[in-house]
Amino acid sequence: MDTKSRAILVPAAQLDDELSKCANCFNLLEYLRYGVLYCIRPTESANDFLISYANRTFSKLTGITDLAEHWLSELQSHLQLLQHTLVDLANQVMESQRPYSEEFCSADGKHCFSINLSRLDIQAHSALIIALEDISERKQAELALRQMNQDFITVLESTSDFIYIKDQASRIRYCSQTLADITGHKSWRDMVGKHDKEIFPLETAQVYMQEEIPIFQKGIALLNKIDPYFRSDGSMGWVSTNKWPMFDEDGKTVIGIFGISRDISESKQREDELRTMATTDFLTGLASRRDFIDDVNRQIARIHRAPQIQTCLLMMDLDFFKRINDVYGHAVGDAMLQHISHLMKNEVRRVDSIGRIGGEEFAILMPDTTIAAAQAFADRIRNKVMHTPLLDKDRVIPITISIGITQISCNDRSSDSILERADTALYQAKNLGRNRVELA
Prior knowledge:
Elements: H1 17-20, H2 23-29, E1 35-40, E2 50-54, H3 56-62, H4 86-96, E3 100-105, E4 112-122, E5 125-134, H5 136-158, E6 162-166, E7 172-175, H6 177-182, H7 196-199, H8 202-218, E8 222-230, E9 236-247, E10 254-263, H9 265-279, H10 289-305, E11 311-318, H11 321-328, H12 330-347, E12 353-356, E13 361-366, H13 371-386, E14 390-392, E15 395-397, E16 401-408, H14 415-431, E17 437-439
Helix pairs in contact: 11-12
């Protein structure tokens, strides 16, 4: 075949009269983006087809010119189809009168094509139309999309974070396998279409639903929110959550949410432990002096806002505690401090604060309590301690406490003056014989 590029038009004498009338149609085919062949059987019994017309695009796609008046079988080496030979397909289409489509790639793999064969009947004549389209760009886009999708799936199935995409109804579209694991699902695909109410306990789901309202309504992202979650075994963990709105093409309408939650359970546990160490007395488990004073300062501020509130503070000290350490040793002394702490914790109300202020000094803050009620409570706990000795192996070790009480007033500006008054009352109790209660 001649490889020179030129328009290929079949002389009108070689076309049927009906086709000659449609010469303009063939001229239009020259400008199509896909290649077109018009083929006829020279005789009814012929197995091969004669190419009557080929447009410029077909020549450009195949690199072959001067196709007119050549046989279809001559294209066989240029169009290497996957399923059948080109001539076999052509005969199959002509006989079945059903079109056939196939996608294939060039031998060097650089180009991909879509070929379509169909029968065309014009009055008493039949012809074969072959359309050839270069689909290389589409195939490359499909490949890139598949690779991107595979990368996305790899992220979902490999990440240790909880990743999720929700639709406008807040139902899962995609999520990471880690989220499936902690909620008792075998695969993240089992979670697709589910709402938080179907995945988490209702109380937890409501937390997530509430925080998503501004995202859906106003398109406001949620950043660094600490949220609880429950594992499939019922244990609770903590996550740091970020959620961003996903917008429609208009850039305004929120059509979904993209979220990433990172498990911070271990770091939060360490943080809680450090906070506990900073606010709790290690030996007794009571509030530390610093944490107790913070409670006192909060009560002072409360009383300044509402002067009618009555709040009392009790300061307590173990009588002759040094003797316990000297006679029985410091281990028994520590056990005594724990014993007294346990007795006091069992007597106070939930609204009360109790702390270890010093070595053997304790204090109790009693909100909404009159001085008379505080004195009655102090006498009760003093009697409790007096009649509940420490049992150390086969030894019974008694102890008593002295208590000083003061009432917080709106004239108090700091905890120092309050503690000083309570301490004065305490030492008055000690000077008057110990194991007693005195008022400041």
